[in-house]
Amino acid sequence: MPAPRIGILTAGGDCAGLNAVIRGIVCAAGHRGMEVVGFAEGYEGLLNPQTAQVLQVEGTRGIEAEGGTIIGSTNKGRFQLRRGPDGSSNLPDSLVRAARTALEQQRCSAIAVMGGDGSLRTALHLSRAGLRVIGVPKTIDNDLESTDVTFGFDTAVARVAEAVQNLRTTAESHRRAIILEVMGRHTGWLALHGAVAGGADAALIPEIPFDADLLSRFVKDTERRGQRSAVIVVAEGARAKAGRQMRRQTGSGENRLGGIGGYVESLVARTGRETRCAVLGHLQRGGSPTAFDRVLGQQFGVRAVELCSDGMFGRMVSYRFGSVTDVALADAVNRRRSVSPDSQILRHAKALGLFLGD
Ligand code: F6P
């Protein structure tokens, strides 16, 4: 009899730790006499099942330390849920049928999806349509409910912290203020943790629209106190109290978040302090994962296989209170986890003297 098979795919924007999860799944499945089939380029791979490949333990040796995903991903594609006129999210039945057929063709009894909120909402939709689905929480934004941490976050925080430290030396040399724009569309976990880890002076996040006058006063105060430099981390989704999120048109005609760093630069420059802005961009998502993300990713992979073996579908692997566990997929994607006023990291950042825009 052929070995039972699990399908896997990586969906949405990449981040460090995807390959660690893949390695964890492949090893744990091999241990249980199961095979793993990798569908290529995210959900799109379900429309091209002939491109799927069986992943071997030997072939994945060492990938836990590599960035990106060996099976490819996309944050575009046809599997994004569409909002209907009544506000409900939907996926055409033809895509659900195609997904089911792809799994049958590859003899996969279930599929594990590594993704962020959008990709896991699609996973939930497929699960409700009767497919056997397991979710694995991925995002550098760390904004998923029901898990204390997503894989990729720790690495991104380390990248932000390193950038803050590097910018500090230039800011100190030239008596400048430097603004660092980081990712974080809706939530400021990455900006806050990165600012604290790197020793920045301020963090501006989407959850706290910032007061432009207070920002100017804060920058002037740093000079008055004799500080040679000021480093301000701003999340791409942050906005001024009186303003809205800033967007820019890309060459390909897409309308993307971006530009808030430059705007903050112009506000700070008005104080008379020489000011520069750096945009960290995709450096936060790429490259080798931290040891924490390598361990967490592989553990998440092992748990995903356990859930498949135990027939616990419609679940998402999760990390709670120091242990890897699992929760209902529906609970994880229902609501976004934002930085609330009573968040510990927010209170502690304030206690450490960071300016938070209010
Ligand atoms: O979800 C992570 C994220 O990095 C956002 O913070 C950012 O706006 C987006 O993805 C960028 O994705 P892309 O790879 O399409 O530029």
Plain-language structure description:
This protein is of the alpha/beta class. It contains 10 helices and 15 strands. The strands form 4 sheets. The chain has a 7-stranded mixed β-sheet with strand order 3-2-1-6-7-14-15, sandwiched between helices. Strands 9-10-8-13 form a 4-stranded parallel β-sheet, with helices on both faces. Helix 1 (18-31) packs across helix 8 (291-309) and helix 4 (153-174) packs across helix 5. The structure holds 6-O-phosphono-beta-D-fructofuranose. 6-O-phosphono-beta-D-fructofuranose (F6P) is lined by residues 13, 75, 116, 139-141, 183-185, 236, 257, 285.
How far apart, in Å, are the first and last alpha carbons?
65 Å
Q: Give the number of helices.
A: 10
Largest sheet: 7 strands, mixed
SS-based structural class?
Answer: alpha/beta
Mean pLDDT over the residues: 97
How much of the sequence lies in strands comes to: 15-25%
CATH topology of the largest domain: Rossmann fold
Secondary-structure arrangement, i.e. CATH architecture of the largest domain: 3-Layer(aba) Sandwich
Tally of separate domains: 2
Radius of gyration: 22 Å
Give the total of beta strands: 15
**Distinct ligands, ions and cofactors found in the model:** 6-O-phosphono-beta-D-fructofuranose
Please trace the helix and strand order, writing H or E for each element: EHEEEEHEHEHEHEHEEEHEHEEHH
The CATH class name of the largest domain reads Alpha Beta
Main sheet: strand order? 3-2-1-6-7-14-15
Task: Work out the helicity level.
Answer: 25-40%
Overall shape: elongated
Low-confidence stretches: none
